[in-house]
Amino acid sequence: MKEYIIKESISIPYFDHDEKSLLKTIQNSGLRRNMNPMWFALRKLRNIILSRWSFRCPLNKFRVRWNRLRGVTIGDNVYIGLHCMIDNAYPEYVYIEDSVSLAGNVTVLAHSNPYGHFHNIVESGVSPIVIKEGAWIADGAIILRGVTIGKNAIVSAGTVVDKDVPACSLAKGNPMKIVADFNALL
């Protein structure tokens, strides 16, 4: 895979959606991202459209292409299954290396943005997700922000990945546990 620079984790403001004014919400969101609100709105619209197309498209080639256009770093020979949701607010924080397979219904969340009344419980922020070469993420897995899934690792179906998965290991469950190390087999 070509070299890439992994973005640093950042804190973001807690959720502050203004129900009465879409314009005010767009202005606030643009300011938080240090960009012109109109450019933010167009970027958000493009992201939503490409994400929806990718979610339902029967052809992997287009699912990969559209996620790249959204800002996801994707290597060669990658499979993204139907109904995969790759972070819709911060896709540029997701890194998928060569020969990775995401089965259907996988969710990849690079950010957490709860309401402010949770500030003593949950941090609001964005952290990169790195899925290393040859990893396989099985159906219905959920990958949370700030994790790295090691080279040739397997994440079992339905697993909630909330911490790093070592290379050549099998992770499963909720809470996630490493249940096997198959380094000697590869």
Structural summary, described in words:
The structure is a single chain. This protein is α/β, with parallel strands linked by helices. The protein has one domain: Hexapeptide repeat proteins (UDP N-Acetylglucosamine Acyltransferase, domain 1). The protein contains three helices and 17 strands. A six-stranded mixed beta sheet has the order 3-6-11-14-16-17. A hairpin with a 4-residue loop joins strand 16 and strand 17. Helix 1 packs across helix 2 and helix 2 runs antiparallel to helix 3. The radius of gyration is 17 Å and the shape is globular.
What key attributes describe this structure?
six-stranded mixed β-sheet, 3 helices, alpha/beta, globular, 23% helix, UDP N-Acetylglucosamine Acyltransferase, domain 1
C-alpha Rg (nearest Å): 17 Å
In the predicted model, the low-confidence regions spanning at least 5 consecutive residues are none
CATH hierarchy class name: Mainly Beta
What gross morphology would you assign?
A: globular
Q: Quick one: CATH superfamily?
A: Hexapeptide repeat proteins
* Overall pLDDT metric: 93
Strand portion: 15-25%
Amino- and carboxy-terminal Cα gap: 20 Å
Percentage of helical residues? 10-25%
Count structural domains. Answer: 1
Short description:
With 186 residues, the protein is of the alpha/beta class. It is 23% helix and 22% strand.
Tell me the layout of helices and strands.
Layout: E1 10-11, H1 22-32, H2 37-56, H3 60-70, E2 73-74, E3 79-80, E4 85-86, E5 94-96, E6 101-102, E7 107-108, E8 111-112, E9 125-126, E10 129-131, E11 136-137, E12 142-143, E13 148-149, E14 154-155, E15 160-161, E16 169-172, E17 177-181
Parallel strand pairs: 2-5, 3-6, 4-7, 5-10, 6-11, 7-12, 10-13, 11-14, 12-15, 14-16
Antiparallel strand pairs: 1-9, 8-9, 16-17
Helix pairs in contact: 1-2, 2-3
